[in-house]
Amino acid sequence: MIRNDTKTISSDNRLTLADLSSEGTDTHDLILCLETATEVCSVAIGRAGRTLTIHEIDSGYVHASQLSVLVERCLADLRIALTEVAAVAVSSGPGSYTGLRVGISAAKGYCMALSIPLIGIDTLTCLAQGARATVPGVSSIRYIPMIDARRMEVYTAQYDENLSQIRAAEALILDENSFQDEINTGKQLVCTGNGAHKFAGIFHHSAVKFINKPCSASDLMVLAEERFREKNYSTARFFTPIYLKSPHITQPNKVL
User: 7-24 pLDDT, tens per residue?
Assistant: First the structure.
């Protein structure tokens, strides 16, 4: 399924193409965002932290064949060329090994070919940003993004109400005692991401809220703008994904 959020999703964080024209947008500020860390392939272009156009496919791992198609659709929406983009932001992981390689390879290629900055932002922070946009932060809240890492394991981290990371990213095997310390100290947990359903299946508590919000380039956009203004760039040539774990590689049953 392909979604064009410019047409179908209303948000205070997005502008229409008419807004772009009327405010005389300086294309030197445009950021291309690529989100390929999970099963969602998402591409957006925006400025000032707001998404101008977004195209997403959430029907499976089709990143290798569809990422460039979505980039072209976003460019066509705004009637601009890729050379008019000021920077490229990409979700850096953890997540799908193949998805990350596709997105990061594309981002590096664009940046090196056009001599523009690369902005790498870890996927867990992007998910936490999406959760914070849905459930505004208070002092007792903890945003806990979870990315599926096979079986009952997830990639996760913890963020406070200001999106400051208070527990480093890790590969965690979930059980009924996970995050019990946080709950015992009065924290409200907001769990999100494609791994959150695993925890929802084994743990029920009034202090835990589950949000079904997938990875999206629109959440990446908000964080990318901050890095862009601060000139907090990554070095494209040496930029690599965050994996946390070694790839799961199986051996063939038969030797050909």
Answer: 323 334 445 555 555 555
